[in-house]
Specification:
There is one protein chain. The chain is globular and about 95 Å long. Helix 1 (8-17) crosses helix 7 and helix 16 runs antiparallel to helix 17. The protein has an 11-stranded mixed sheet with strand order 2-3-5-4-8-9-10-11-13-14-28, with helices on both faces. A 7-stranded mixed sheet has the order 34-35-36-31-37-38-43, with helices on both faces. Strands 16, 18, 21, 22, 23 and 26 form a 6-stranded antiparallel sheet that branches. The N and C termini lie far apart (75 Å). The protein has 24 helices and 43 strands. Helix 2 links the parallel strand 4 and strand 5. By secondary structure, it is α/β, with parallel strands linked by helices.
Length: 943
């Protein structure tokens, strides 16, 4: 395709705006919290005067303050509260944050939002978060908060305050903390470290120290073109912004003038670089003392993870407390909106600790790991103790034709150009690339050099920026190249993680003479599975960037031993899961169609199996269920149990006990090798009609990522063929508690949001039997507590719920009945209240040394002494410090004896925890699965 001509001021302002957030009003708005109907919050609109423009024009900002009602938490004895400032993204306004501001205020904070100068109803011009203008404006807003009688003060004129914001607002949070030490904590998201690097990235490693800015690289031309209109829109409508220069819109004239030549040539001069760096946190990290939570997106070709990495390492080097989260979002995600789970929820936890002394959220490194594009593994959430601690693995590389040099052509006009990303279109190109088809667009023949590693013997998780050393020969005195790391499947299909490339610009070359350079490949997080390999591709063009217009040739070869791949010592967070990969979604759809066709044919050939009359009113009856695999391993070994109406039944056991295998057989996902399953008297087989009366969430939810949460539920219900009026959609959405996020694409959801939507999907139509496999995965404690109430209410009306879990304490609080599996068999079954109540046993909590209590009860003169009159059979100290007393001794006599012996008694209880019951049956350290029949013949205990 032909590249359009670059108008001088168009690309200049576009290059500016590329530093900002998403196109259109509301860019970088945080979504997914509360809503306008949040109660108990008072909003006050203000017009606040700030510093004038260089021309002397007076400027006022459009401000809103949200104050919680008197009864909200967080106030001190004088009714004063900590404050939070929420900063919007480029092209937006304070209105984008109104719902979030109300929700944060309802948590007991005084919240201030404002429209930045140069946008919306605020006056002034855009100076790109300049310390002299936008940052100074933030200080004026802190003054405003300090004057309020409901804001907590650390000193006269010093409010207790934090700042959170995304992209343009995120940079403002960092800059405000650098220039105003009254800022007490910050949460910047998807933002820049060095605006010069953000607009003109350079991934040739210079070996410079942390915080030192390398030479400018290659202009992100596509991002610049995309954002052109957002900065200039005011200049095209004189009635909306009288007096604004139509050539520069609401950009400050100095900014517009300095970018003119840089945007035309694609290369910034020193004046431009000084301007960009002055609007960057990079040179002032040593001034930031406020504890910082950095949130950055993996789907971001505008401000990549390398930007947050530089900020995090720089702050840590200065001793500033810093935590890092890599989320599955960013400017390349659909809409670039940040969910509550991504920004506001973590921000509240951060502010609660650093502004109000709440629980410490710690400084762990949390990251989202996308699913393998070629396998069926789900996306994962990983966590590491701290950021910046990595290990490296060197993988050998070889060229397509051995280790020799590979020539590349950079065509005149830069066309045709490799296509790796489409800024502003969301993950559209990535979705196509995930099938392996994107490689033909991203690595053009004659314009790319290719180097492959051998297939991996074991999985490798890449976290960070791989490095590779190259030798480059150019036909001119400079070179512009784009390096990327692709994952190649066993059958040769290649995919580019997150559609990211690393631009490299080399200058001062001698034509025909090689120059060695170390290249930092894109910073990301992804997994390379066993049998797959990594491919390093070096291209002479990329459609997202400005490239030389003249014809030139390059020769590229390896200059090192291979590619150095970083990783971190991270663990899988509890409850991770994710969206089904695209190939899996297609496969499941085909299977469903096939199952429907088979069911139709089967219905023509034979009648449905007869109902078992005595089970017609039993929601679920399992009898002698067996699943044995071809290698002889018996995952489920003759289990029998029931779930009755009105019960919440916990299917409980350690990992590997056979719970999920059982759940899959309950709905016909896998075939049982023996035994039967009946639902309301109907035998369960694959596609059995009675399954229409069952709702299930097994092994995590799977959704169509491009649809909203609401549309996913509607599409699922439509696929069942049922009347939409019977879906009880609003009740299901209320259970999911997604708020406005229900209208956003599911691809932007966190794991917890997807899990809640999966539970809601299982409850559509309010089925008589509800099966939930590990439903608390990905939920935080308040959500788990809410789910307990939901399940209890659901069963109250005569419905039945079966919940599988390996968390005994959670089942004890959630379920009315329990079925405990161990090593493939049911070892315990009954009502939770009966199982934990133990007559003849008393648990005593004492103050001080519990051994004194044992001595008082069993020693000379004790209740278990020579006379034997009081019947103490045994007294032992439990691992939790309580004293268990067995026998027939009355509890009042037991307490009286301890008090008489001078042992203070804090509590007396006859109930055991479910975990104690379980461990008393299976013992410590036993494997989850039965190894031989004799071990299983002990049978099960019924209560």
């Amino acid at each position: 395709m032909r590249r359009p001509a670059r108008p001088r001021r168009a690309v200049l302002a576009a290059a500016l705006a590329a530093a900002l957030v998403v196109a259109g009003a509301g860019a970088a708005a945080v979504t997914g919290l509360g809503g306008e109907d949040a109660v108990g919050v008072d909003e006050q609109e203000l017009e606040v005067s700030v510093g004038p423009e260089p021309s002397g024009e007076r400027v006022s900002l459009d401000v809103s303050v949200f104050a919680p009602e008197e009864g909200a938490p967080g106030a001190d004895d004088e009714g004063r509260r900590a404050a939070v400032l929420l900063a919007h993204g480029f092209g937006g306004s304070k209105d984008d944050l109104a719902a979030q501001a109300r929700s944060v205020a309802a948590e007991g904070y005084v919240v201030l939002t404002w429209t930045a100068r140069g946008f919306g109803d605020s006056g002034g011009l855009i100076h790109l978060d300049s310390p002299d203008y936008e940052v100074a404006d933030a200080s004026r807003l802190l003054d405003l908060l300090a004057e309020r009688d409901d804001v907590l003060l650390d000193a006269p004129g010093d409010p207790r305050a934090g700042i959170a914001g995304g992209s343009y607002g995120g940079a403002l949070a960092l800059m405000a903390a650098a220039y105003d030490d009254r800022v007490d904590a910050i949460v910047p998201a998807i933002t820049w470290h060095d605006l010069a690097q953000g607009l003109f990235p350079q991934r040739a490693v210079s070996g410079s120290a942390v915080g030192e800015t390398p030479a400018p690289g290659v202009l992100k031309q596509r991002w610049a073109s995309l954002f052109f209109a957002s900065g200039l829109a005011a200049g095209l409508d004189p009635s909306a912004a009288p007096g604004v220069d139509p050539q520069c819109g609401r950009f400050a004239p100095r900014v517009c003038r300095l970018y003119d030549e840089a945007a035309t040539t694609g290369r910034p001069d020193e004046a431009v670089l000084r301007l960009l760096r002055r609007s960057s946190p990079a040179p002032v990290l040593d001034r930031i003392a406020a504890p910082t939570l950095l949130v950055q997106g993996l789907q971001d070709s505008l401000f990549g993870l390398d930007q947050a990495d530089a900020t995090a390492r720089g702050l840590a080097a200065e001793g500033t407390p810093v935590a890092v989260r890599w989320i599955d979002g960013g400017h390349d995600a659909s809409g670039a909106a940040l969910s509550a789970d991504d920004l506001v929820d973590p921000a509240l936890a951060w502010f609660d600790h650093h502004l109000r002394g709440g629980p410490d959220p710690g400084e762990a490194f949390d990251l989202s790991l996308p699913a393998s594009p070629f396998g069926e593994e789900e996306a994962e959430q990983l966590t590491a103790p701290a950021y910046g601690e990595e290990t490296t693995t060197t993988l050998p590389l070889a060229g397509a034709r051995g280790d020799g040099p590979q020539p590349l052509l950079s065509p005149p006009g830069g066309e045709p150009a490799a296509l790796t990303s489409l800024p502003g279109t969301g993950p559209l190109l990535g979705a196509a690339g995930s099938t392996g088809a994107g490689y033909a667009l991203g690595a053009l023949p004659g314009e790319s050099a290719v180097f492959d590693t051998p297939a991996l013997d074991e999985p490798l998780t890449v976290v960070g920026s791989p490095r590779v050393r190259l030798s480059v020969v150019s036909s001119t005195t400079d070179a512009t190249l784009f390096a990327s790391a692709w994952v190649v499947s066993a059958d040769g299909a290649a995919t580019l993680p997150r559609q990211l490339v690393s631009p490299v610009r080399l200058e001062g070359l001698t034509p025909g003479r090689p120059r060695e350079v170390e290249v930092a490949l894109p910073t990301s997080a992804y997994r390379v599975e066993a049998g797959q390999s990594l491919r390093v591709v070096v291209s002479s063009t990329d459609a997202a960037y400005a490239v030389p217009e003249d014809r030139r040739t390059y020769v590229v070869s390896l200059a090192g031993d291979g590619v150095v791949v970083p990783s971190v010592d991270a663990e899988r967070a509890a409850g991770t899961g994710g969206l089904a990969p695209t190939p899996l979604v297609v496969a499941v759809g085909l299977l469903l169609l096939g199952a429907a066709a088979l069911a139709l044919l089967a219905g023509r050939r034979r009648r449905e199996a007869p109902v078992v009359a005595e089970l017609a009113d039993v929601p679920l009856a399992v009898d002698g269920l067996v699943k044995q695999y071809s290698n002889g391993f018996c995952a489920v070994d003759g289990t029998s149990w029931r779930a009755e109406r009105g019960q919440v039944v916990g299917l409980l056991g350690p990992n590997g006990a056979g719970k999920t295998t059982t759940m899959r057989m309950l709905v016909g996902l896998i075939r049982a090798d023996g035994g039967t399953v009946h639902v309301l008297g109907h035998p369960v087989t694959a596609g059995a009609p009675v399954l229409a009366r069952v709702g299930a969430l097994i092994e995590g939810p799977g959704f169509l990522p491009h649809l909203s949460g609401r549309d996913n539920l509607l599409a699922y219900w439509a696929a069942t063929g049922n009347d939409p009026a019977t879906a009880h959609l609003e009740e299901a959405l209320a259970i999911a508690d997604l708020g406005v996020a229900a209208e956003r694409p599911v691809r932007s959801y966190s794991q917890g949001m997807r899990q809640r939507l999966g539970i809601a999907q299982a409850m559509l139509g309010l089925p008589e039997l509800l099966l939930l496999d590990e439903p608390t995965n990905g939920l935080d404690p308040p959500q788990i507590r809410n789910l307990r109430g939901v399940l209890a209410r659901y069963a109250t009306g005569g419905r039945t719920v079966v919940v599988s879990s390996h968390l005994l304490s959670e089942v004890e609080q959630t379920c009315s009945h329990v079925v405990v599996m161990h090593r493939g068999r049911v070892v315990l079954e009954g009502a939770v209240a009966d199982l934990v109540d133990r007559s003849g046993s008393t648990l005593v909590t004492v103050e001080g040394d519990p051994a004194r209590a044992v001595e008082a009860l069993t020693g000379p003169g004790g209740l278990g002494g020579p006379d034997g009159v009081d019947g103490v059979e045994q007294a032992v100290v439990e691992p939790d410090g309580r004293v268990r007393v067995a026998g027939t001794v009355p509890r009042p006599a037991l307490v009286a004896r301890l008090v008489e012996a001078g042992v203070p008694v804090a509590a007396v209880d006859g109930r055991r925890h479910l975990e104690e019951v379980f461990m008393s049956l299976v013992g410590e350290g036993q494997p989850a699965q039965v190894a031989d029949a004799d071990a299983a013949d002990a049978g099960k205990v019924r209560r």
